[in-house]
Amino acid sequence: MLNDTSLMSGTSACPGCPENIAMRMLSMALGKDVALVVIAGCSSVTQGLAPKNAYGYASLNIAFAAGPPAASGMWRAYKRRNRDVTVVVWAGDGGTSDIGFASLSGAAERNEDFIYLCVDNEAYMNTGGHRSGSTPHGALTPTTPEGKSGNKKEIPFIMIDHNIPYVATASVGYPHDFIDKVREAKTIRGFKYVHVLTPDPYGWLFDPSRTAEVAKLAVQTCYWPLFKWKDGRIEVSPESLHCLKKETRRPLKDFLSIQGRFKKIDEKGIEDLERYIDELWERISLNLKR
Amino acid sequence: MRKVMSANEAVANAVKLARVGVVGIYPITPQTTVIEKLAEMKAEGEIDADIVRVESEHAAMGVTLGAGAAGVRSFTATGSQGLLYMHEMVWWASGSRVPLVMMVGTRAVGAPWNIWNENTDFMSERDSGWIMAFASNPQEAFDLVLQGFRISEDERVFLPMMVGMDGFILTHMKTNVYLPSQEEVDAFLPPRRQPYVIDPEAPIGMGNIFPPVEYMKLRHSIHSAIQSAESVIKEIGKDYEKISPFNNYRTLNVKYRMEDADYALVLMGAWAGDAMEAIDELREKGINIGMLRIRYLRPWAESEIKELENVKGILVMDRATSLGRGGPLYLEVKATVRNQVKGVVTGLGGVLLNKEDFKRIILKFLKEAKEERSDGVEWYYPAEVEKVELRNPKDVE
């Protein structure tokens, strides 16, 4: 099953890195005819030092906000050259929800023909774990030592509101779901947005051997929903169906207590997070495919 | 074919004749009529380029760079705030060694808002590793943009090239422009060449982390490429004569009445026209002054500038300034020659000078030169500005 052409030896990623897991899954889904645009982030570094590169894909590294524009130019260039290439923007959550948001929104509005993959570790992990617009309420980061105040920006919903052909969420804890969604995205013309949760042992403060487990707990506790949006409706993945009813959700504390970044959160903070999850699922329920 | 057109329209025609494949566009005055013309050409089926209407100048360069990296000839245009907003990507393009061409319609930079001409925006990119040309009339705007694709795609260069032109004064000025035929341009400009293409056929990674020595070597190679571009530009300029009646591209910069000149005026851009008129009238009064018009800021043709050492005095006029210091051209010339150099900063934010202003500036300079005190920088205001009271923050009403 492993397609080792996309990720070769020599990566400088940390032990337990969820991004390399995601990279492997991406190549299982897409095969070889892929060109990557990698914006600033851990992945700019984990490729290893030039002139060598641990990514087997043709890849253009580029500044934070320039991923979607570069991909817009690239897919058009391949089309003009009669090359059948899937262009993928590989972007972190800071590059997606903060500094690169205008260019993401612009490319979505133009319905450019590429896959935008947001690899969400919920902070600027490459600089040292600083808070981003995607950091959850209550999380400790070096720039929010008291715990972040305010919820995670809901980029998948914002992308749904752009009325693009395809939006999907995934978790590295559920490879089949992630791979299926990326494969489906490849078959669709126009702008495809895929958002994968990638729990980071060093930023979230858990043991590096437990990356997949934390990525599963995020889904089981309904903190992170697995769904896809297509043809104007949301379809919840089987792994997340239990979240539609509040009483079948696994307790949120199972997800919070396994990580160090929530160690200062109080009861009120937990209630705030639970309310956020309730509202998240209410919103999903309202747009369900029936 | 000869046709009356503005410099912006001439630029659009150069892009068309160069068979550009992808154009990233975002509006900013005074460049907008370039992209309007290209959009119109596309709508009417005159070009088949992909016109990508992006959400910012940062993205305009992103699209242009992405298309170039994936193997297609690309172009964009901007100026002023747009160029500053694009700044990060300007550097990314040269660091990636991706050939492409950008037109810059120069304009003052805010705050405060001002839409009129000034070259400080263009000058602020001089350290970015681009080939930088500056046009003086619509014909030259056309010629430089067309030649730009070949210069940029020459394997001895492989760098992006920007062509500046004075906002409104040149971008919107109409004159007769000679356009070579498509067949002639096809013969002059070969299919795109570039150092690498991002393509799964032969996957490479571009732009990941370079360790210190490797990074320094990369910057060094860009430095060398800019320097070697000097002979490439001359070679291409000579070859351009096969498709154009203009034969003044054998040098990077342009001399006017310098053969017997005792004094030299150095400047760049559209106001060279007023300067030449002033020089003609002063010559009639027996004042031997000539002009060197800088057409290429990068490469800086040191040997051409060094020839100025033969004159008794040098006056450099800048429509730009490095605040607290002096005009960028003045600083460049001063670093090249041994002579005393006087700098004049003027024309900022659209301040207009006429022929009489040039004569006033030159006559004052000649008086100072004779007294051997023609050094330093003067801020010049046109004759009708009688009193200069500077505005300071404490004066806010």
Automatic annotation (TrEMBL), chain B:
Keyword hit for Methyltransferase: no
EC number(s) given by UniProt: 1.2.7.11
Domain Pyruvate flavodoxin/ferredoxin oxidoreductase pyrimidine binding as annotated: residue spans: 14-236
UniProt keyword terms in alphabetical order: Oxidoreductase, Pyruvate
Top-level taxonomic group: Archaea
TM spans (from-to): none
Any Pfam family: PFOR_II
PANTHER family assigned: PYRUVATE-FLAVODOXIN OXIDOREDUCTASE-RELATED (PTHR32154)
Subunit note: Heterodimer composed of an alpha and a beta subunit.
Matching Gene3D superfamilies: 3.40.50.920, 3.40.50.970
A GO biological-process term: response to oxidative stress
GO MF: 2-oxobutyrate synthase activity; 2-oxoglutarate synthase activity; pyruvate synthase activity
InterPro entries xrefs: PFOR_II (IPR033412), Pyruvate:ferred/Flavod_OxRd (IPR050722), Pyrv_Fd/Flavodoxin_OxRdtase_N (IPR002880), THDP-binding (IPR029061), Transketo_C/PFOR_II (IPR009014)
Biological function: Catalyzes the coenzyme A-dependent oxidative decarboxylation of different 2-oxoacids such as 2-oxoglutarate, pyruvate and 2-oxobutyrate to form their CoA derivatives.
Name of this protein: 2-oxoacid oxidoreductase (ferredoxin)
Record domain Pyruvate:ferredoxin oxidoreductase core: where: 261-357
Record's catalysed reaction(s): a 2-oxocarboxylate + 2 oxidized [2Fe-2S]-[ferredoxin] + CoA = an acyl-CoA + 2 reduced [2Fe-2S]-[ferredoxin] + CO2 + H(+)
